[in-house]
Design a protein that fits this description.
Strand content: 15-25%
Structural class: alpha+beta
Distance between the termini: 21 Å
Oligomer: single chain
Largest sheet: 6 strands, antiparallel
CATH architecture of the largest domain: Orthogonal Bundle
Helix content: 40-55%
Order of helices and strands: EEEEHEEHEEEEHH
Number of helices: 4
Length: about 190
């Protein structure tokens, strides 16, 4: 049964999770689904490490036995566009996040909130790499992935903000992705 992926009556219900949005809190239940305990632990650990960043939800409490997180609700909605200031704020959040040992695997715009005053927040950390040693080789790669997704957003909404070096890094990764995309399409063709 396919689930609708939208918020209805302050609830977001999918095969993988149930999110209930209250006036001041958000409850996120990780449903038994492939990798759900790992995703729960990852998000819990990320939120604990990122308590010092005000534009990320505060973890209020957690229930390990129920794989359930209770966190603060941040004001705002998914933006249609990102201003120069939004992207500067997002860059600051990403750098603070990386300094805390948390790197995101993706940064879709649906994980970004902007309030009526233009203040930007970042949510949803279940798909992250978390480390204690910032110099670990896997984290060095994960940091590059986080920055790549940041640069993609900047290129999409305010390309004039990218430095020459950032543009070059973005172009290199895009070329690699398109090269490996050929193999992915071939693999999918064979599997079909």
């Amino acid at each position: 049964m396919a689930m609708i992926k939208e918020v209805i009556d302050n609830k977001y219900n999918t095969e993988k999770m149930l999110i209930e949005i209250g006036d001041e809190t958000v409850t996120k239940l990780f449903k038994p689904y492939r990798g759900y305990q790992r995703r729960y632990k990852r998000e819990k650990e990320a939120l604990l490490r990122l308590l010092h960043i005000i534009d990320i939800p505060r973890l209020i409490k957690f229930e390990d036995h129920n794989t359930k997180l209770f966190m603060t609700r941040l004001p705002g909605v998914k933006p249609v566009d990102l201003s120069e200031q939004n992207l500067r704020d997002l860059t600051k959040i990403v750098e603070q996040m990386l300094a805390a040992g948390v790197a995101r695997h993706a940064m879709p715009i649906r994980d970004i909130l902007v309030d009526q005053n233009g203040r930007l927040s970042l949510v949803d950390f279940e798909r992250s790499t978390i480390v204690n040693q910032l110099w670990r080789p896997d984290f060095l790669i994960a940091k590059k992935v986080s920055r790549y997704h940041l640069y993609r957003l900047i290129a999409q909404y305010q390309p004039q903000l990218l430095t020459k070096r950032q543009k070059q890094q973005l172009e290199r990764v895009n070329k690699l992705r398109s090269y490996f995309g050929v193999f992915k399409r071939f693999r999918n063709y064979i599997r079909a």
